[in-house]
Design goal:
372 residues, alpha+beta, Gyrase A, domain 2, 3 domains, six-stranded antiparallel barrel, four-stranded antiparallel beta sheet, 6 helices, 22 strands, 18% helix, cilium, bacterial flagellum, Flagellar P-ring protein, flagellum, cell projection
């Protein structure tokens, strides 16, 4: 049985191809690292009816809520049905309508909406969404939706066989909702604004504070915790907008992220960031053998030279399969080099997953292992 012996090495790879890159972090715009507290989208939801379908609507005998919705709508329009009337409709479908209300949206602005069948309708193609109120989490109406539903899928049936491309029970309406109420924002209130980092990191928060104070003056920014940064801003709305624009364009060099290895068990993809390191360990996996060794060389000067004895370490990686040497990597090879070498000798994605899982289980992988 072959063993995989690994000493401590650094990973300098990230991406699908596991390509090498420099370990130095590049400066990023502050708007890519953080957002302004209160500047956010709000989800809207509504229940409505789609009419005008070509016999592909809900089967009303199995979806009583569709019939109840039709009766209620007709009553609001002044149409009263005789008691005990049984509606057998095929051209109507009950749907849920969803949309995202962007920050600072004003009445009259249009939104794109998604219309999804909630009954047993076969298709929403060619249907028209009737006027539907869209509500927020506070149960208040923020937009009204109506329009022709656009479905991208295609369905066909011939000689008893069916063919369907894409999904026919979900459609979109571009600009199908009109904003009726604006959401109040706290950005223009008070003497300060709050920045929220996309990912909590004390080092990055400290660097953001230093960059802001260096650009706008001492005591302009102060870190509240690992995610929130308080920034003093002008009181005037016009000056505040200009200040926030300059603030978002500020270049900040983020701290190195947490070491992470992501494994996709379905596709075999492996993604590693630059912070991954390995400790000494040994893993047995079939007939594959990867040996990362360190040769210690002793350098001893002449007795009369007055120098000191020094020890140097030279690392190397030998890849073997079935006891035959196939590849020799030079000193300083990283974990990315090991993965690429295993790929070169025909190791399957499952082999790579098993090896990395075993290394993590042994405690030698100094990184978070995430399997998706």
């Amino acid at each position: 049985m072959k063993w995989l012996a690994l000493t401590r090495i650094s990973i300098l790879a990230c991406g699908l191809g596991l390509g090498l890159f420099s370990g130095a972090c590049q400066a990023e715009r502050l708007k890519d690292l953080a957002g302004i507290q209160g500047v956010r989208q709000n989800q809207l939801l509504g229940y409505g009816l789609v009419v005008g379908l070509d016999g592909s609507g809900d089967q009303t005998t199995q979806t009583p809520f569709t019939v109840q919705s039709i009766v209620s709508m007709l009553q609001q329009l002044g149409v009263s049905l005789p008691p005990g009337t049984s509606l057998q409709l095929k051209n109507v479908a009950a749907v849920m309508v969803t949309a995202s209300l962007p920050p600072f949206a004003q009445p009259g602005q249009t939104l794109d909406i998604t219309v999804s069948s909630m009954g047993n309708a076969k298709s929403l193609r060619g249907g028209t969404l009737l006027m539907t109120p869209l509500k927020g989490a506070d149960n208040q109406i923020y937009a009204m939706a109506q329009g022709n539903v656009l479905v991208g899928g295609v369905g066909a049936a011939a000689n008893g066989s069916k063919a369907q491309v894409n999904h026919l029970s979900v459609g979109r309406i571009s600009g199908g909702a009109t904003v009726e109420r604006a959401v109040q924002s706290s950005v223009g209130q008070g003497e300060t604004v709050q920045l929220e980092l996309n990912t909590s990191d004390f080092s990055t928060a400290s660097r953001v504070v230093e960059a802001i104070n260096r650009r706008f003056g001492t005591d302009t920014a102060a870190a509240m915790d690992g995610r929130t940064i308080q920034v003093r801003a002008p009181v005037s709305s016009d000056q505040r907008v200009a200040f926030l624009g300059a603030l978002e364009s500020l270049d900040v060099t983020p701290a190195q992220t947490v070491a992470k290895v992501i494994l996709n068990a379905r596709t075999g993809s492996i993604v590693m960031n630059q912070a991954v390191t390995l400790d000494a360990c040994a893993v047995a996996h079939g007939n594959l053998s990867v040996v990362i060794n360190t040769d210690n060389a002793i350098s001893q000067p002449n007795a009369l030279a007055g120098g000191q004895t020094a020890a140097t370490a030279n690392s190397g990686i030998t890849i073997t399969k079935d006891a035959g040497q196939l590849m020799m990597l030079k000193a300083g090879a990283s974990l990315a080099d090991v993965v690429k070498a295993l790929n070169a000798i025909g190791a399957t994605p499952q082999d790579l997953l098993a090896i990395l899982q075993a290394i993590k289980a042994s405690g030698a992988l100094r990184a978070e292992l995430e399997i998706i």
